Amino acid sequence: MNTEYDIDLVERYFDNELSEGESALVDERLKTDAEFRAFFNRERALIRSIRSAGFSRDLQLLKEIERGISAADKGHQLRIQPWYFAAAAAVALFVVAALWILPPGNSPDQLFDDYFTPVSNTFAPALRGSDTPSQPEAFRYYDHGDYATAASLFDEMLGQETGPDLLLLSANAHLAAGNTRVAEQHLTTLIRDFDDYDTPAKWYLGLCYLKQGDVDKARTVLEELGQREVFYTGQAKELLQKVK
Amino acid sequence: MAREDIIGKIRSGGPAGLAMIYEEHRDEFLHWIRKEYGCSEDDSKDIYQVTILAFYDNVRSGKLQHLVSSIKTYLFGIGKNIVRDTMRKSTRHIAIDQERWLNENLIDEPGDAIPEHVFASAKSALERLGEPCRKLVELFYYERKSMEEIVGILNYKNAEVAKNQKCKCMKRLRRLCEEEIKRTSITINHEY
User: Fold this and answer.
1) How far apart are CA B113 and CA A135, in angstroms?
2) What does pTM read for this prediction?
């Protein structure tokens, strides 16, 4: 039978809270006291099981991400591939984080701040040949982080021609500038009228709803996205079930 | 993202940092390791995943606080060590047993070998632990969060309360483990 003192000693050993003298005592007891050694190793097994579960979960997550990337490499190339996978991974991570890591009291606004990064502008090279005068400027402002100006210029461009690339960038610029209503309109148009960027559009729409403080709508969009994604781990699905 | 930002993001608990790093350095790492060591595509990916987890653990544990080189260089350094370690153990090809490597290098504390049935009982006990205890012990022992950080995450009153709660959870986990060990022993005895 282990005494309370021994239990406390071993627990503090694994928590790195022992003094030098106490550490020496543990080392000595491990050599001479079989019962103490057995208890010590059982504690080690418990901590190993906790760490093992954490590593397994994260390894599984990386494998899911890798499966998605490999699948796309074999024939589902998208124009915004690097972003696409980051977004898809982020969806899974977002749900895990929102339910597991982040404090229950985190505000939707804070979650938005933690997870919103404007989509990378990988579209400009394909569009620079256009004659539209404001086009290079809009991209430049976007790349420099002046999202309010970029949003305004993108809207001018959208007045002339509506395309999925512009809608996605414009929505991001508006979202970054705090114009969530316009961002929502662009994203819903993108999802409704085009097939190109459903995944990133839904990801940003989920974030947009969070910014608006509408957690239920955000959750609905993220759930839908999660169910469609090959990256989504069984564990994340399980967590999602709990939140339902 | 700047490298210090990445370290801060990982340390502050965001798993998003893990995926961002994975995606950001993946192509270069896989290309390098295949060219340098002749690894197969699958082996390269296995090594890369373990490399990312080792990096992540180094950041969380505080072993890595400031990068003197780029994240890429650091990852390549870890990868090189893993390959060399794996090559020492296998002369035929560079395949890594991920679970075994993680266990030997990152998970377990040094000491005597833990009997398999004890570890199996510990795993079963953890599965039965329930929330919020499971989350609490994982935050502490896997994520390596301080009690102050856990207070923020699980909304405890203060660090002292969080610590007391962690002790209670470990006590409960020990009891569950005892039960599992006894149950296993009874089963084994019945079988014979």
Assistant:
1) 65
2) 0.58
